[in-house]
Amino acid sequence: MDLEQARERMIAEQLEQRGISDPRVLAAIRMVPRHRFVPPELTEHAYEDTPLPIGFGQTISQPYMVGLMAEVAAPLPHERLLEVGTGSGYQAAVLARLAGVVYTVECVEPLYLRAQRTLAEIGVTNCFVRLSDGSLGWPEMAPFDVIVVTAAMPGIPRPLIEQLAPQGRLIAPIGVPELQTLVRIRRIEGHLREECFGECRFVKMVGKHGFST
User: Fold this and answer.
1) CB–CB of 198/182 below 8 Å?
2) Which of 65, 85, 92, 146 sits CB 3.0–4.6 Å from 104 for a disulfide?
3) How many C-beta atoms surround the C-beta of residue 41 within 10 A?
4) Do β-strands 58-60 and 80-84 pair in parallel, antiparallel, or remain unpaired?
């Protein structure tokens, strides 16, 4: 199987044809070998239009959703970004190609260790991984220009809002465990402005400000 061809087909058919047009986002996704972030037995499916299991009840997001969230977040090369929910590390690797520095938090230790290792193996040097409750953010490194949440939440935790920089933006799937809306919250002149970008389905956030069960 030609993985490079599969990646190019993914970009053309799953991203560009569905409206992902930011050239920086497309270039970042082109640079990241998605197949390195899935279990070996799923390598041949790495570039398919679907989320894939990575163990411990977690998934690597559908390629389109990774592209959409990156485009909505629009991180710039000088900006500091917090990702809540490292998972496989794939989305962190894409975001690290767009932002100046990425801080990403994972609560499942085996996933944290695996993501840390994979990111290092593919040469990502501006991404720092922490084992912690992601719903609490990473207060020691705040404020963040961008916060990207990759797990479903019933609402936006106050700690994340407090860690958002002036003029910052937060992107997250908000709703019930079965179905969420992708939301962007922007802080503009001290006020929070909310925009919606369609329905989505993510695994649920656990932790102090996630779902209780």
Assistant:
1) yes
2) 92
3) 7
4) unpaired
Q: What is the pLDDT along the chain (213 residues), one digit of tens a residue?
A: 699 999 999 999 999 999 999 999 999 999 999 999 999 999 999 999 999 999 998 999 999 999 999 999 999 999 999 999 999 999 999 999 999 999 999 999 999 999 999 999 999 999 999 999 999 999 999 999 999 999 999 988 899 999 999 999 999 999 988 899 999 999 888 789 999 999 999 988 887 766 655
Closest CA to 210 of 151, 139, 148: 151
Q: Which of 50, 52, 32 is nearest to 42 (CA)?
A: 52
Q: Yes or no: say if 61 and 89 are a contact pair by the CB < 8 Å rule.
A: no
Query: Are 101 and 129 within 8 A, CB to CB?
Result: no
Q: CA-to-CA distance for 34 and 94, rounded, in angstroms?
A: 10
Beta strands in 2-153 (DSSP E): 52-55, 58-60, 80-84, 101-106, 127-131, 144-149
| Secondary structure (3-state) at 23 | helix
* Token output for 142: 């705040």
Q: Give me the active site residues, please.
A: 61
pTM here is: 0.95
Instruction: Check: CB of residue 201 under 8 Å from CB of residue 180.
Output: yes
